[in-house]
Amino acid sequence: MSNAPSLAVRLFGTDEPVAPLRILRAGALTAELDTGNLRHIRYAGVEIVRAISFIVRDRNWGTYNPVISDLAVDERADGFTVTYKALALDDNQAFRYSARIEGSADGKLAFTAEGSAENAFLTNRTGFVVLHPIAGVSGHPVTIEHVDGSIVESRFPDIINPIQPMMELRALTHEAAPGLKVTCRMEGDTYEMEDQRNWTDASYKTYVRPLALPWPYTLPPEERIEQAVRLTVTGTLAAAASGATAGTVTLGERIGTAPPLGLGLDPTEIADTIAQSDRLRRVGARVLVGYYDPSLGHDEATLAGIVEAARALDAEPWLEAVVQSVDGFAAEIAALGKTVAGLGSPFRTVLLSPLPDLKCTLPGSVWPPAPPPRDFFEVARKAFPNARIGGGMFSLFTEMNRKRPPVDLIDLVSFTTTAMLHAGDDISVTETLETLPSVALSASAIAGDKPYAVGPSAIGMRMNPYGEAPFANPKNIRQAINFNDPRQRGLLGAAWALGFFARFAAGGASTITLGGTTGAFGLVSVRHDWPQPYFDEAGGVFPAYHVLRGMARLTGLPLRAVTTPDTIEAIAAETGDGVELWLANRTGTEQSVALPGAPRDLFLLDADSFVAATRDPDAIDTLAKPFDNSTLVLTPYAVARLRLS
C-alpha cells in the first residue's frame, strides 16, 4: 500500500532511527553496549546488573544524549576493551569526558570515566549510575560496604522504600543466582541508593552525590571528575535460572475481578473530546477523570466542560482539583464545593491536592509550606458531603509514597505513573511493566482497607515534579520526560497499555485510568502542534484504542492468573462461554507461545493489521478471525485477543 506508514511509525510512532545494541563477550560475561553505556550485564545467562551508565543531567533532571567520538571496540577471546570520548552540551554549557570499559573472562568488568566542564556547568547529577535488577533481587540479602569501610548485612527492599534504603556506599555484594555472587564497587564519590521502583523503573539505582547536598550545583571548569565502577563475579552457578516454561502460557486460579477502565481528560482536550465522542464512547470507559487547576486558568466553565465531556462518553465524571492557597485553603475548597454544587454535584468522586504537592521534595530537603493534611481533608469532606474523597498525588507514586495521605480521613488513595522519567528508550519503557506488581503491593500497604486507584497514566509525562514541565518534543523523538511521546500512537503503546492494565488489575486496583481521550495521551487522532506521522494525513484511532476497548469489556468479569514467558504481557477473564485471553509481545523480536485450551477465534493487532485497525474503530470485532492453532506467533509489539472454549 503506497500510503502505508513505515514499519517504524507502526511500531513506535516515529521514524527516528535507533542504533542497534552491540553485544560484548568475555567468556561467560556479556554486556550490551548502548551509546557508550552498558545494559543487561549477564554471567552465564544470569542478569547480574541491569545497567552501568555515566550520565550528565541538566538542572531539570533531563539527561543529555552525549555526542560520542573516537569509539574503539577491541574484542578478544578472553575479553573486550571499549574506549571513547563524549561531549554533553546544550546552547549554554558543555561537559567533555572520556571512558574506558574492560571485561575479562574471569568475571571482572571495569568502567572508568574522567572529564571536566568547558565552562561553568549547572547540573543535578553528573557521574555513574548503577542499576540492580528487581527479579530475583527484591527482598533478598545484600552485603553493604560503606565509605568508612564498615560492613553491614542488609536486604534489598520488598515494599518500595520512599527514600534511600542504602546510604554512604562503596560496594554492594549480592547473590545473582544460587552459588553466583556479584560485588559492585563504586569509586570516586559517595554513592547512595534509591528504590527506583518508585518511578516504575525495574531496578534499584545507586548513584553519585547524596541528594541531601544542594542541587542543582555547578561544576567549575578547573574541577576534574574521576570515577569508576568495578564488577567481580565469584562462585559457580548452582543451576540454571528457572522460571515459566519457555514459550508456554498457562491459566491459574481466579484472582479477583477486572476493575473499570477510566480515561484522563486535560481541559485543553474538552472540545476535541466532545467532537470525537462517537468514537470515544465506543471504548466503554466507565470513568472520565477531569483535571482542574485554577493556576492554569481553569474556572467554572472548565468544570462544566468536564461534565459535558463525560456525559458525551457515557462515563462517570471524576474531578482532580488542585488547591492553590496555603493559608486560605479552607475558603478555597469551600468555594469550589459551592461551585460544584451549583452544577448539580455531578462529581461522585473528588480527588484533591495542594498546589505545593505537585512538585517534588527530595529526601533531606525541607518540605515547602502546604495545608496541614488532616485539616485539608476535613474541610474537603464538608465541602463535598456526598462525594467520595480521594487523596494521594496527581504527579507520581513516588511523591505519594514520600508524603502519604491521612488514609483514615479519605475514601480512596490515588496516584499516577509515567514510563519514562529516567530513560526514554524502548527497552526501558517496556521494562517499567516489571515493577508494577511492586507498586501495587506498596500502594495496597499504604491504602490499608481503603481502595486505591491508578491514573491518569501513560508512557508520556503529563506533569514534571522535578522541573518546570515535561518536554514538548517537537522533533517526535524518544527521550525521557516527554509530554508528547510518539509510542502512544504505535503498537508499542498498545502492548504497554495491555501490560499496565493487566498488572494493576492483578494487583487489586479499584479503577485503572489510562492516558486520555485526544491529545498527547489520547486514543483518537486529532491534529496538534506536534508531528504525528501518518495520522496527520490519515486520521483514525491509535492501536491502544482497541486494547482499552477490550479491557473495558472485561469490567466485572472474574480474572484468572496467567503465567507467561518474561517477554509476554497477559490478562485472562472468564466469560459466559469460556475464557478471553489477551497477550502482548513487549519486545522488538518475534515471540512464539503455546496456548492454553482450545482457541475459537483471534483478533491480532500487529504491523500488518495496523492500517486497517487505525481506520476502523470496530476492528476488535471486524478483524477477528477463526483460529484453532495450539501456538501463536507474535511479531514485535503485537497484541492478540483469543477466545478459548
Any overview of this molecule?
The protein is an alpha+beta fold and 645 residues long. The strands form 5 sheets. It has a 16-stranded antiparallel beta sheet that branches. A hairpin with a 4-residue loop joins strand 11 and strand 12 (151-155). Helix 5 (329-342) runs parallel beside helix 6 and helix 10 (491-506) runs parallel beside helix 12. The longest helix is centred in the C-terminal third of the chain and has 16 residues, at 491-506. The radius of gyration is 25 Å and the shape is globular. Residues 241-245 have low confidence and may be disordered.
Radius of gyration, in Å, reads 25 Å
Percent of residues in β-strands: 35-45%
Mean residue pLDDT: 94
User: Structural class of the helix and strand makeup?
Assistant: alpha+beta
* First-to-last CA distance: 36 Å
Task: Name the overall outline.
Answer: globular
Indicate the low-confidence ranges by residue numbers.
241-245
Helix % is 10-25%
Key traits:
645 residues; 35 strands; 37% strand
Concise overview:
With 645 residues, the chain is of the alpha+beta class. Helix content is 19%, strand content 37%. Helix 10 (491-506) runs parallel beside helix 12.
How is the topology of this model organized?
Layout (H helix, E strand, L loop, with lengths): L6 H6 L9 E5 L2 E6 L2 E7 L2 E11 L10 E10 L2 E11 L4 E11 L3 E10 L3 E3 L2 E8 L7 E6 L4 E5 L10 E12 L2 E8 L3 E5 L7 E6 L8 E3 L4 E12 L14 E8 L3 E5 L4 H6 L1 H5 L5 E6 L7 H13 L3 E8 L5 H14 L6 E6 L18 H11 L4 E5 L4 H6 L9 E4 L10 H6 L4 H12 L4 E6 L33 H16 L4 E4 L20 H4 L4 H11 L4 E6 L4 E8 L2 E8 L5 E4 L4 E7 L4 H6 L3 H4 L2 E2 L4 E4 L4 E6 L1
Parallel strand pairs: 20-21, 20-27, 21-22, 22-23, 23-24, 24-25, 25-26, 26-27
Antiparallel strand pairs: 1-2, 2-3, 3-4, 4-10, 5-6, 6-7, 7-8, 8-18, 9-17, 10-16, 11-12, 11-13, 13-14, 13-15, 14-18, 15-16, 19-28, 28-29, 29-30, 30-35, 31-34, 32-33, 32-35
